[in-house]
């Protein structure tokens, strides 16, 4: 992997991770276009590991922007901030469904859904869902919640966590499902977005650690050890591309998060619905025309 490729993938990861457009879908397409992960099974596994591990940059971005909330939760766990403890419990409750289902179905998902047609389908359907939801909210402006983040209960958080599980289908978007889930349980759009970011820190951290320490079976046992995934990735790409990808993801994610919060205040999600449909149709056209295989 060339440094410019790592930089571009980091930018794509950072911009798309917290926007409701699917970072996984964009990274898979970008890797295909650059010929990354297309040589053999090991090359694909190394590319998948790289795409997951550069999420560390996006995690750092949110930790930096929302450090006050993070400190509040830490103080809550230490018994010094009741509201912080309540929020920490809500974050953990929202994470549990994905943790359980992820362990049960991760291998099946990677085998069956990490190809372009399922991603294209998810992009278009997700876009149509956003447009439908936006239309419904305009027709029923008085309906919906306006609760603050501190009003979130663990039961509401579990519902959002179940919505997050839908995003295990690549192309769906974790941010989209958690933001929609937050609005459905009664949070204001701003509170739903903030919860989505904070829940993402825990979810993405768990996914990054898992991919870094996971064992790669087969291939003569060469990577069938703890941190086998990390060894595979470093042998393919080296340390420099990973660092470049993480830094690029951190900077671009910080910019994207600040922009999204400001944009949603007055515009809503409609733009992302049209974008998802357009990019889904574009990728579908490229696959159908044979530019690259599904």
UniProtKB/TrEMBL annotation:
One of its GO terms (molecular function) is undecaprenyl-diphosphatase activity. Coiled coil: none annotated. It holds the Pfam family BacA. It is a multi-pass membrane protein. Its EC number is 3.6.1.27. It is an enzyme of class 3 (hydrolase). It catalyses: di-trans,octa-cis-undecaprenyl diphosphate + H2O = di-trans,octa-cis-undecaprenyl phosphate + phosphate + H(+). Keywords: Antibiotic resistance, Cell membrane, Cell shape, Cell wall biogenesis/degradation, Hydrolase, Membrane, Peptidoglycan synthesis, Transmembrane, Transmembrane helix. The keyword Cell wall biogenesis/degradation applies. It is found in: Cell membrane. Its main location: membrane. The keyword Transmembrane applies. The chain crosses the membrane at residues 49-67, 87-105, 117-137, 149-169, 240-261, 273-292. One of its GO terms (cellular component) is plasma membrane. One of its GO terms (biological process) is regulation of cell shape. HAMAP family: Undec_diphosphatase. Belongs to the UppP family. Catalyzes the dephosphorylation of undecaprenyl diphosphate (UPP). Confers resistance to bacitracin. Bacitracin is thought to be involved in the inhibition of peptidoglycan synthesis by sequestering undecaprenyl diphosphate, thereby reducing the pool of lipid carrier available. This is Undecaprenyl-diphosphatase. It comes from Luteolibacter pohnpeiensis. The lineage of its organism: Bacteria, Pseudomonadati, Verrucomicrobiota, Verrucomicrobiia, Verrucomicrobiales.
């Amino acid at each position: 992997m060339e440094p410019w490729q790592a930089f571009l993938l980091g930018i794509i990861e950072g911009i798309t991770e917290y926007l409701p457009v699917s970072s996984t879908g964009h990274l898979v397409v970008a890797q295909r276009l650059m010929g990354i992960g297309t040589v053999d099974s090991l090359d694909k596994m190394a590319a998948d590991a790289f795409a997951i591990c550069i999420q560390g940059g996006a995690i750092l971005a949110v930790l930096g922007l929302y450090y006050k909330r993070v400190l509040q939760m830490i103080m809550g766990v230490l018994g010094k901030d009741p509201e912080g403890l309540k929020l920490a419990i809500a974050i953990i409750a929202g994470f549990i469904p994905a943790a359980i289902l992820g362990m049960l179905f991760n291998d099946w998902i990677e085998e069956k859904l990490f190809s372009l047609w399922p991603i294209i389908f998810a992009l278009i359907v997700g876009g149509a869902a956003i447009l439908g939801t936006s239309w419904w909210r305009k027709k029923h402006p008085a309906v919906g919640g306006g609760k603050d983040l501190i009003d979130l209960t663990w039961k509401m958080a579990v519902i959002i966590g179940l919505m997050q599980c839908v995003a295990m289908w690549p192309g769906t978007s974790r941010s989209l499902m958690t933001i929609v889930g937050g609005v459905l349980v009664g949070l204001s759009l701003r509170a739903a977005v903030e919860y989505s970011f904070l829940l993402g820190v825990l979810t993405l951290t768990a996914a990054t650690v898992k991919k870094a320490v996971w064992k790669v079976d087969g291939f003569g046992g060469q990577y069938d050890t703890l941190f086998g995934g990390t060894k595979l990735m470093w042998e393919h790409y080296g340390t420099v591309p990973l660092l470049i990808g993480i830094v690029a993801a951190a900077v671009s994610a910080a910019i994207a998060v600040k922009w999204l919060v400001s944009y949603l205040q007055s515009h809503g999600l409609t733009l992302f619905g049209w974008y998802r449909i357009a990019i889904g149709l574009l990728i579908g056209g490229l696959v159908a025309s044979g530019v690259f295989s599904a």
